[in-house]
Structures are given as structure tokens and as C-alpha cells.
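Protein in question quoted for reference:
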Amino acid sequence: MPASSARRAVRDILFSASIGALTVVAFVTLLAGRSVAAAAPATSVLVRVAQTANGAVLTDSDGFTLYIYDADSANRSACVAACSLTWPPLVVAAGATPTEPYSIVVRSDGTRQWAYRGRPLYRYRGDARPGETLGSAGGWHVARPTAADAARAQPLTIGTTTARSQATSYRALDASTATKTDTPILQTPVSVVVVTQQVLQDQQDVNIAQAIANVSGVSVGGGGAADNGQPFSSIFLRGFLTDSHFRDGVRLDSFGGDSDTYGLQLANVDSVEVLKGPAAILYGAVEPGGIVNVVTKQPLATPYYSILQQLGSYDFSRLAIDTSGPLSSDGKLLYRVNASFENQGSWVDYVYDNNSFFAPVMRYKFDPATQLTLQYEYHHLDLGQNYGFVPLLNGAPVNPSINANYGNVSPDVETTNFWDLSFSHHFASGWEIKQTFVLNDTDVDSAGLYPSTIKNHADTSSGWGVGRAINNVVNENQNWSAITDLTQHATTGDVKHTLLFGGDFYHFGTDGQINQAGETNKDLSYVDLFDPVNPGTPFKRPTTPLLFDTNANGSLGLYAQDQVEFPGNIFALAGLRYQELHQTSSVTFYPYPAAASPILNATAITPRLGLLWQPQKYLSLYADYSGNFGPNAPGDILPSGANVPPTSATQWEFGVKSALLGSQLTVSAAYFDLTKTNIPTPDPSNPNFVLITGAARSTGVEFDLQGQFAPQWQAVANYAVTNAVVTSSNDPINPVGSPLGEVPHYLARLWVTHDFRKSPNGPKIGGGIGFNGPEPYLYAGGSGLVIPPYCTVDLMASDGFRIGQSSVRAQINATNVFNRRYYADAQNSSSFFVTKAPYTAFTALYGPPQQVTGEIVFGL
């Protein structure tokens, strides 16, 4: 493919130049950041004086108005519980000390809040842009400085600090993923859960599978032979898989074609938001189970430096760097750089995982209402693949060792370059516009030695051999997208509106080929069935082309949404989306000369309607109806040569949410009923094609809890019961009534920590227990094959202290403490293997055994 090679060569030159330029920028950024830090004291610039037509007012560093409350008394806040959802307090950063005229008020929940001349300070969530004063009513007033304070040099500072403010709570009160606006979760009539930075830190999570284990009804799968020997490729939400994830609200597709999901790095991730159920209204062509959105770390207004080193079992080593601050003396130009370098072996022979990750961010604030942000990510992954081939004798593994690998060294090398340019502006009329342009490019070069056959009279020591073929995949996957959102806050009588209008265009394309040496039971390399020692017998011929493919998926969408607040604490959410889909596939199977080149065009209108009632400020009851529309993976071809038609889905959801103990603990529960159509499964007579399962229905109950349930005690708990079955089918593998594969019927997790410290430093202990199962095999159909239920236990301990101006934290985590052996992934793949009686085989991957990881973090 000369044209493709030429494009790749030109692109590689541009990539290299971009990486070099960004590296220079990063070094300059670091040096400039240090010089700024050296030139100015380490202060927390949180309050400014703004001169308005109505006199001087106090604002935060972003220009948003601060307020005081008549019900407060001197040095005491009366705005607690549900009140703080609308009027969040101006919280004190860790390590900060007050300077006149500011002081610190300790709230009833233990949170420390800034006060001006004894009056606690608050923000108002209804102010949509800097300078607004919509909260000045009903006992609330704009905070105004005295004449003497207003005459001081700008900006005012309210205390020195030597460390960045860190969110230390397990619960979040707001989330933007569900509505594309910062909306209190208690007022959002859909199910959304946030995994906070503190949870990620306490569990030492380094991949997305670990993070989303803290959310009910969410798991990962699709590993081993289902995805080129990787640990997992798909996320399962409410019974349905997705190969996409979101980054700051932007969809990144892979359709299982690369490691975008498994390889997702958390070094620059601040939190993870999970929206349950159909999300097509705002995000277009997505799977109906929900979306996982990683929220990245953004530039800070004050200098911050951190370095983290982790060491653990199986030669695990990870170094992470995080640095941020201003680059200009006026604070308008900000930066942040995150980087991580990871190396890890495995309990499985020939498996390893090496990652290099670099993510700089630059932001320029033209004024308090306008900013431009440029983000870049470079990720290089070198992975040793494991296809999970398990030979069986009378249903029991022939080789029960979790180390066994019937393949050999099977490298998968992937390089990803990501750019994100976003612009936002608040207009004086109250409208806000945000525009985002994203390009994500992944190059894949994979060579897998995958087992597929059990044969007698092989040239091995026992005469029984496992035959392996070589599968070499070379391809390029590219996402690019453009998104525009317009928002406005308006009032009509006693009714408040948050309006959203937007449009987006997404493109996903892949261009590549697969070369293969060895076909089923022919020209294979064999290792002994009972003692799989490599290199095995030699291949009898070189690799030859198996297929060439070029696929593209484009979608264009227009959407509108209104969040309405009625009197009586009634909230409605209504939206509508128009979607166009264009999909092309060009697939040539060797040695057949004809190419399958189907084209698919489709349109759809998808609605969402939600209603929520707050009978009490701490309690919400809601109902929601949502529609969904999305493509199947480009390259999925029916035996007729046609593309698989798009999927559609509908969902009803009913739920309850509550914020307890002064909003320190959030609890939610939901029942859902979700139906999806047009689900592809491999054709057993020719795995290069797929068949269609007409429809599947998933129903279930979910429960989530996050936050502080007692002084110095925090917890994350979740529980889900999911019943996902086929309801319409012409597919003999998946008849009506058969369960959907890799969807655990029960999922539960409890994680609890106790913090002995009353300051930012001191000891902490914690632990958790997770339960999974039973879980049907992938492609189990009506066979009844399931992974048995299993339970694992984790523990942690940490301690923090200071060395001069630096904060230091040491932590140790132990996972699967009792070394429980279990299958994390299993596939009914016997129809794809050629075996010889009395032996059979299936595909399975063991879950991680007992592991211990220690880390030490230095912050300044």
C-alpha cells in the first residue's frame, strides 16, 4: 500500500517535529515555572477585588463573585447540608495559614472555610460567568471589602501555602458528563458516579479497570483471543460492551482495534465520571450501556511540583511527574506537565507491559471570560500478548499453572499521539461558547504467536502438541472530531432554565493489514502439550497476507437540551438529537481477489426526558427515558458482504439519590430496563464474518455509596444485579434466552479507609473486598458455561509527613491478599479450535494473583 506508506512517512515526520517542539516547550515551561516560583512567595491567590459599577466586590481567582450569608454568626457557618450544594464554601487549601483580614472557620462537618473579617465566604452555583451576582437575594449578599482593603495592591492573598489544594473526599457533588454543564448530582435525573482523585490515590490505581471497579455494574472484558492477546479491550456497562472511552467529554473510538482502552494512562487523570445508560443525546454514536469519561488535570494558578515512585511485585516500576504553575507574572499563561514511565513483568510467561507517557498542557487566559487551552499526549506502549489458550482433559486444565503460556514472546507495539485545542468565552449577554478540536492517531505493529490446535503424533517429546500460528497486524487508527457547545442560563417567571445547543462531527478511520503464517492444523509451530517449552518446531513457510482493510466511520450530530427548575424543587431534563452516520468498509480476504466494499448511511433522532423531585434538600427521586443510536464496528461484515446495520436502544430508569451527614456521604440506587438491537457475534463457519443477534435486554438494580460516614472514616461501596439476555435472534450461537457474555450477574465492592490524622499529614489504613459472578463466558450462548463466583481482598496503609517545604507520603497496597485463583476472562472458543479427543480447549485469562505495591510521593 504505497499511498498509505507515503502518508504514514509524512505524518511520522510531522509527529517527530511536534514531539521535539513540545519537549522544548516542556523544558522551557519547567524552567519558567521554577523562575516564577522563585520570584514570588508561595501564596494562595484566592480572592481578588473587582471594581464594578456598583462598587468593589470580592471575587475568586477566576473572577466569580463571592457572597456572605445573613444567617451566619461571627466565625460560624450556618449554610450546611443541602445549602452547601447551592452555596459551596470557599475551602481552605491544605497547609494554608490565614493573614489579616482573613481567618479560617471550621464548619460542622470538619471542613475549613475562608472568612473575611469573620464572615464565611461562599460561591453561588447559579452564577454562570465571572461578574454575575445572581445570588444576591434571600439573605445572601455580595461580599464587599472595606475601603482600606479595596485600596490594597492587587490581588489580595488570604494565606500562605506550600502545597496544592487536594480534594480529599471520596464523594463528588457535581458532574458535567451527564449534562455537559456543571450540575449537582442530586439534581441530575440520570445515574452518574464519580471516582475522585482521593480514591485513585488510596488504591494506587494505574489503569481504567482498577478505577471503574468503584462503580456499580461496570467491568472490563474482551481480553485474550478476543482482542489480540491483550488483558482487556472493552468496558461493560449495564450489560453492553463499548470499545470507546471519553477524555474531557470527547469520544475516542477504537472499536476493539487497538489498546486505547487498556492502555489508557492515569498519570494526568484527576477523576473518572461514569454515566449509566444511553448517552446519544449529547455524545452521538455510542453504545447504550453508558460512557466512561476521564477528567484530566488542568493547569494550576499556583506553582506545584510532585514526583512519585512505585515499586511492586513482578518487577513493577512506575515513575510519575506532575508539575504546574504560571508562566507569566500576570498569571494569564499557565502550564501543566504530567509524565509517567512504567515497566512491569507478569505472572504469565512471556508477558510484559512497558509504557512511556508525556502530557503537557498550556492555557492562556485572555481575561476572566476567555481562555484558550492546548493539550498534547504522547503514549508508547510495548506489550507482551497472552492469548489465554487453555487445553482441557475431562473439563480440567491439562496444565494448571497460572504461568503457562502456549504462545511465545508476542510483542504489540503501539504509539499514540493526541492533540486537543479548546476555546471558551463568556459573552456579556450570558451565553457561553466552547469549541473543541481533537486529533488522536494510533499506530499498531503487533506480532502474535497464538495457539489454535491440539494434535497427536506431533514432533514433541510426548507426541501431543499445541500448534501455533503467527498473526502480524500492522494498522493505523485515527480519530478526529470537532465539537461546539452553546450554553445559557435564563429565567422565565419562577422557572429557571439552563439551555444547551451544540453540534459535533466525529471521524474514525483505520487502515491496515494482517499477515499470517500457519493456518488451522497446517504449517504450524508445535510445543509439547504437557511441557510447552519454546521455541517449538519451526514454521514451514513465511507469513503471507490474510487480509487488507480500510474502514471509516463518520457521524454528524445536532442537539438541544433544556434543564428546567420549577417551583417546588422539581427539575426536568429534556433533549433531542439529530444524527447522521456514514460508514464505509473495504476488506480484501487473501487469497480471494474480490474486495467487500459495503457503504452504510443512516439517520436517527434520539430523545431524552428526565424528571426529578426533591421533597427534601437531601433527597431526590427521579425517572428517565432515553433513546440511543450508534454504529457497529467498521469492518464487521455479514456473510452477504454487507455492513452490520447500526444499533438502536431504549431505556427506562427509576432511581433515588441522597446526600447525608451534611452532604459528606452520597448514596444512590437505580432500577433500569435497557434494550439494544443488532448485536454482532462471530460466524462459527467463518470467523472473518459476523452474524446478528436481533435484540438483547438488560435489566438490573444498582447501588452506590461514596464519602465520609463517620469522622475520619471514608468508604466507597457498590452493588449491582444485572440480568442481560438475548430476546430476539437468528444466530445459532446466541438463541433467545441465552445470557450476554462477560456480564457478571452480581458485582459488589466495599472499600473503607480510616484516617488517623486531623491534619494533611499522618497515618491512614484501609482495605476492600470485591465480589464477582457468576459470569457467562463470552460466546457462551445457551451452553451454560460460566466463570464461578470469586471474592478478593485488598489492604492499604500510608503515612504522610513534611521535610522542610516538601510534603512526603509513603504508601503500601496489597491486592488479592489471600491469593485467590480465578478466571478474569473466559470465552467459549472451542468452535474456533481444532482439537483431538480426549482433549479440548477454551480461552481464559487468570486474574492477578497476590501483589504488593509501594509508593513514595514528594510534593512541593
Remarks:
- Confidence is low (pLDDT under 50) at residues 1-45, 153-157, 159-166.
- The first helix runs from residue 2 to 39.
- The two ends are 52 Å apart (CA to CA).
- DSSP finds six helices and 47 strands in the chain.
